[in-house]
Design brief:
There is one protein chain. The chain has 256 residues and is an alpha/beta fold. Helices cover 44% and strands 18% of the residues. It contains twelve helices and eight strands. The chain has helices spanning 16-29, 44-48, 60-64, 69-72, 93-96, 106-117, 133-141, 153-172, 192-205, 218-222, 230-233, 238-254; strands at 3-7, 34-38, 74-75, 81-84, 122-126, 144-150, 178-187, 209-215. It has an eight-stranded mixed sheet with strand order 3-4-2-5-1-6-7-8, with helices on both faces. Helix 9 links the parallel strand 7 (178-187) and strand 8 (209-215). The longest helix is centred in the middle third of the chain and has 20 residues, at 153-172. The termini are close together.
Protein backbone atom coordinates (compact mmCIF):
# COMPACT_ATOMS: atom_id res chain seq x y z
CA UNK A 1 0.00 0.00 0.00
CA UNK A 2 1.27 3.48 -0.91
CA UNK A 3 1.29 6.32 1.62
CA UNK A 4 1.24 9.81 0.11
CA UNK A 5 2.55 12.60 2.36
CA UNK A 6 2.65 16.30 1.49
CA UNK A 7 5.18 18.62 3.13
CA UNK A 8 3.51 22.01 3.33
CA UNK A 9 3.96 25.42 4.90
CA UNK A 10 3.18 28.75 3.25
CA UNK A 11 6.08 30.36 5.12
CA UNK A 12 9.46 30.06 3.40
CA UNK A 13 12.69 29.25 5.20
CA UNK A 14 11.24 26.72 7.63
CA UNK A 15 13.15 23.67 6.36
CA UNK A 16 10.29 22.27 4.29
CA UNK A 17 12.36 21.17 1.28
CA UNK A 18 15.23 20.05 3.53
CA UNK A 19 12.76 17.89 5.45
CA UNK A 20 11.15 16.40 2.34
CA UNK A 21 14.51 15.46 0.80
CA UNK A 22 16.05 14.07 3.97
CA UNK A 23 12.95 12.20 5.09
CA UNK A 24 12.79 10.54 1.67
CA UNK A 25 16.44 9.55 1.90
CA UNK A 26 16.02 8.21 5.43
CA UNK A 27 12.98 6.13 4.46
CA UNK A 28 14.94 4.78 1.50
CA UNK A 29 17.88 3.91 3.72
CA UNK A 30 15.45 2.02 5.97
CA UNK A 31 14.50 -0.14 2.99
CA UNK A 32 11.32 1.63 1.85
CA UNK A 33 10.80 2.50 -1.80
CA UNK A 34 10.23 6.25 -2.07
CA UNK A 35 9.17 8.70 -4.76
CA UNK A 36 9.84 12.38 -4.07
CA UNK A 37 7.63 14.76 -6.07
CA UNK A 38 8.99 18.29 -6.54
CA UNK A 39 5.95 20.57 -6.68
CA UNK A 40 7.92 23.79 -6.09
CA UNK A 41 8.89 25.90 -9.16
CA UNK A 42 12.20 26.74 -7.45
CA UNK A 43 13.21 23.12 -8.03
CA UNK A 44 15.37 22.96 -4.89
CA UNK A 45 14.22 19.42 -4.16
CA UNK A 46 15.40 18.41 -7.62
CA UNK A 47 18.87 19.94 -7.28
CA UNK A 48 19.04 18.69 -3.68
CA UNK A 49 19.23 15.10 -4.95
CA UNK A 50 21.79 15.89 -7.64
CA UNK A 51 19.47 16.18 -10.67
CA UNK A 52 20.37 18.90 -13.19
CA UNK A 53 17.30 21.08 -13.78
CA UNK A 54 18.42 22.39 -17.17
CA UNK A 55 18.69 18.89 -18.63
CA UNK A 56 15.10 17.91 -17.81
CA UNK A 57 12.69 17.08 -20.64
CA UNK A 58 9.61 15.84 -18.72
CA UNK A 59 8.82 17.31 -15.30
CA UNK A 60 6.06 17.63 -12.72
CA UNK A 61 4.73 20.50 -14.84
CA UNK A 62 4.09 18.13 -17.76
CA UNK A 63 2.46 15.56 -15.46
CA UNK A 64 0.04 18.18 -14.12
CA UNK A 65 -0.97 18.93 -17.70
CA UNK A 66 -1.56 15.29 -18.59
CA UNK A 67 1.80 13.59 -19.28
CA UNK A 68 2.26 10.03 -18.02
CA UNK A 69 3.81 10.14 -14.53
CA UNK A 70 6.38 7.42 -15.24
CA UNK A 71 7.75 9.49 -18.14
CA UNK A 72 8.83 12.15 -15.63
CA UNK A 73 10.25 9.90 -12.90
CA UNK A 74 14.01 9.57 -12.56
CA UNK A 75 15.94 7.22 -10.33
CA UNK A 76 18.45 8.96 -8.08
CA UNK A 77 21.85 7.67 -7.04
CA UNK A 78 20.45 7.08 -3.56
CA UNK A 79 19.03 3.84 -2.20
CA UNK A 80 15.33 3.15 -2.98
CA UNK A 81 14.77 6.78 -3.96
CA UNK A 82 13.29 8.23 -7.17
CA UNK A 83 12.19 11.76 -8.03
CA UNK A 84 9.62 13.48 -10.19
CA UNK A 85 11.67 16.62 -10.83
CA UNK A 86 10.69 20.24 -11.39
CA UNK A 87 12.18 23.40 -12.82
CA UNK A 88 11.03 26.95 -13.38
CA UNK A 89 8.49 25.84 -16.03
CA UNK A 90 6.28 24.79 -13.12
CA UNK A 91 5.75 28.49 -12.30
CA UNK A 92 3.51 28.71 -15.37
CA UNK A 93 1.31 25.88 -14.17
CA UNK A 94 -0.51 28.17 -11.72
CA UNK A 95 -1.93 30.09 -14.70
CA UNK A 96 -2.46 27.16 -17.04
CA UNK A 97 -4.32 25.14 -14.43
CA UNK A 98 -6.90 27.91 -13.97
CA UNK A 99 -8.72 26.89 -17.15
CA UNK A 100 -8.51 23.14 -16.54
CA UNK A 101 -11.59 21.32 -15.38
CA UNK A 102 -11.08 19.50 -12.07
CA UNK A 103 -7.65 21.16 -11.79
CA UNK A 104 -7.29 20.44 -8.07
CA UNK A 105 -7.20 16.71 -8.83
CA UNK A 106 -4.67 16.68 -11.68
CA UNK A 107 -1.83 15.49 -9.42
CA UNK A 108 -4.13 13.06 -7.61
CA UNK A 109 -5.01 11.43 -10.94
CA UNK A 110 -1.32 10.89 -11.69
CA UNK A 111 -0.66 9.54 -8.21
CA UNK A 112 -3.60 7.14 -8.53
CA UNK A 113 -1.77 5.64 -11.53
CA UNK A 114 1.36 5.26 -9.39
CA UNK A 115 -0.64 3.63 -6.60
CA UNK A 116 -2.02 1.05 -9.02
CA UNK A 117 1.51 0.20 -10.12
CA UNK A 118 2.52 -0.34 -6.48
CA UNK A 119 6.18 0.42 -7.07
CA UNK A 120 6.46 2.99 -4.29
CA UNK A 121 5.65 2.50 -0.61
CA UNK A 122 5.92 6.22 0.07
CA UNK A 123 5.28 9.22 -2.14
CA UNK A 124 6.44 12.51 -0.60
CA UNK A 125 5.29 15.80 -2.13
CA UNK A 126 7.31 18.98 -1.56
CA UNK A 127 4.74 21.79 -1.92
CA UNK A 128 5.74 25.40 -2.68
CA UNK A 129 5.88 28.03 0.11
CA UNK A 130 2.41 29.43 -0.62
CA UNK A 131 -1.24 28.47 -0.30
CA UNK A 132 -1.90 28.74 -4.05
CA UNK A 133 -3.24 26.20 -6.52
CA UNK A 134 -0.07 24.06 -6.52
CA UNK A 135 -0.24 23.53 -2.76
CA UNK A 136 -3.98 22.84 -2.96
CA UNK A 137 -3.21 20.29 -5.69
CA UNK A 138 -0.59 18.64 -3.46
CA UNK A 139 -2.92 18.47 -0.46
CA UNK A 140 -5.74 17.07 -2.62
CA UNK A 141 -3.42 14.29 -3.79
CA UNK A 142 -2.07 13.41 -0.33
CA UNK A 143 -3.26 11.05 2.37
CA UNK A 144 -1.65 13.22 5.03
CA UNK A 145 0.43 16.34 5.55
CA UNK A 146 3.59 17.06 7.53
CA UNK A 147 4.00 20.68 8.60
CA UNK A 148 7.63 21.71 9.15
CA UNK A 149 7.92 24.91 11.19
CA UNK A 150 10.40 26.83 13.30
CA UNK A 151 9.84 27.57 16.99
CA UNK A 152 8.96 31.24 16.45
CA UNK A 153 5.79 33.26 17.14
CA UNK A 154 5.27 34.22 13.49
CA UNK A 155 5.37 30.52 12.67
CA UNK A 156 2.57 29.93 15.20
CA UNK A 157 0.37 32.48 13.41
CA UNK A 158 1.10 30.81 10.07
CA UNK A 159 0.24 27.41 11.51
CA UNK A 160 -3.33 28.53 12.25
CA UNK A 161 -3.73 29.72 8.66
CA UNK A 162 -2.34 26.47 7.26
CA UNK A 163 -4.59 24.37 9.50
CA UNK A 164 -7.58 26.30 8.12
CA UNK A 165 -6.42 25.55 4.58
CA UNK A 166 -6.09 21.85 5.40
CA UNK A 167 -9.66 21.90 6.77
CA UNK A 168 -10.97 23.58 3.61
CA UNK A 169 -9.20 21.07 1.35
CA UNK A 170 -10.61 18.28 3.49
CA UNK A 171 -14.14 19.67 3.12
CA UNK A 172 -13.95 20.42 -0.61
CA UNK A 173 -11.54 17.98 -2.27
CA UNK A 174 -10.07 15.32 0.00
CA UNK A 175 -12.23 14.12 2.90
CA UNK A 176 -9.54 11.69 4.11
CA UNK A 177 -6.72 14.25 4.46
CA UNK A 178 -5.23 14.53 7.94
CA UNK A 179 -2.20 16.10 9.62
CA UNK A 180 0.37 13.37 10.17
CA UNK A 181 2.49 15.65 12.31
CA UNK A 182 4.04 19.03 13.04
CA UNK A 183 7.82 18.95 12.72
CA UNK A 184 9.93 21.52 14.56
CA UNK A 185 13.03 22.47 12.57
CA UNK A 186 16.11 24.60 13.35
CA UNK A 187 15.35 23.92 16.99
CA UNK A 188 17.53 25.25 19.80
CA UNK A 189 16.27 24.11 23.20
CA UNK A 190 18.58 26.57 24.99
CA UNK A 191 16.60 29.57 23.73
CA UNK A 192 13.72 30.77 25.89
CA UNK A 193 11.68 31.64 22.80
CA UNK A 194 12.00 28.11 21.44
CA UNK A 195 10.88 26.53 24.70
CA UNK A 196 7.96 28.98 25.01
CA UNK A 197 6.73 28.22 21.48
CA UNK A 198 7.10 24.48 22.11
CA UNK A 199 5.05 24.90 25.27
CA UNK A 200 2.27 26.64 23.27
CA UNK A 201 2.33 23.92 20.61
CA UNK A 202 2.08 21.17 23.22
CA UNK A 203 -0.89 22.97 24.74
CA UNK A 204 -2.90 23.04 21.50
CA UNK A 205 -1.32 20.39 19.24
CA UNK A 206 0.23 17.83 21.58
CA UNK A 207 -1.21 14.92 19.60
CA UNK A 208 0.22 16.33 16.34
CA UNK A 209 3.78 17.21 17.40
CA UNK A 210 6.48 14.79 16.32
CA UNK A 211 8.73 13.69 19.17
CA UNK A 212 11.62 14.11 16.74
CA UNK A 213 12.95 17.65 16.28
CA UNK A 214 15.53 18.88 13.79
CA UNK A 215 18.26 21.13 15.20
CA UNK A 216 20.43 23.70 13.47
CA UNK A 217 23.31 21.83 11.87
CA UNK A 218 26.14 23.00 9.61
CA UNK A 219 26.44 19.68 7.75
CA UNK A 220 22.68 19.67 7.13
CA UNK A 221 22.88 23.19 5.66
CA UNK A 222 25.77 22.39 3.33
CA UNK A 223 24.49 19.02 2.02
CA UNK A 224 22.26 20.55 -0.75
CA UNK A 225 25.28 22.27 -2.31
CA UNK A 226 26.70 18.77 -2.89
CA UNK A 227 23.41 17.52 -4.35
CA UNK A 228 23.04 14.99 -1.55
CA UNK A 229 20.71 14.29 1.37
CA UNK A 230 22.46 14.54 4.72
CA UNK A 231 22.50 10.72 5.12
CA UNK A 232 24.81 10.46 2.11
CA UNK A 233 26.81 13.60 2.85
CA UNK A 234 27.58 12.99 6.53
CA UNK A 235 25.91 9.78 7.63
CA UNK A 236 26.62 10.04 11.36
CA UNK A 237 26.04 13.77 11.78
CA UNK A 238 23.36 14.95 14.16
CA UNK A 239 21.11 16.06 11.27
CA UNK A 240 21.30 12.63 9.65
CA UNK A 241 20.48 10.83 12.90
CA UNK A 242 17.54 13.19 13.56
CA UNK A 243 15.98 12.52 10.15
CA UNK A 244 16.44 8.78 10.61
CA UNK A 245 14.60 9.09 13.92
CA UNK A 246 11.84 11.07 12.17
CA UNK A 247 11.54 8.45 9.41
CA UNK A 248 11.04 5.71 12.02
CA UNK A 249 8.42 7.82 13.77
CA UNK A 250 6.56 8.35 10.47
CA UNK A 251 6.53 4.61 9.83
CA UNK A 252 5.14 4.04 13.33
CA UNK A 253 2.45 6.73 12.96
CA UNK A 254 1.26 5.36 9.65
CA UNK A 255 1.05 2.00 11.36
CA UNK A 256 3.24 -0.38 9.42
Amino acid sequence: MTSVIAFANQKGGVGKTTSAVNTAAALGALGRSVLLIDLDPQGNTTSGVGVKKKALTVTTYDVLLGAKPFDAIKETQFKNMSIMPANISLAGAEFELIDLQDRERCLKNAIDTLREDGRFEYILIDCPPSLGILTITGLTAADSVIIPMTAEYYALEGLTQLMNTVRRVKQMYNKDLYVLGILITMYNGRLNLSTQVMSELKKYYSDKLFKSTIGRNVKLSEAPSFGKPIYYHEKYSRGSLEYMELAREIIDRIGE
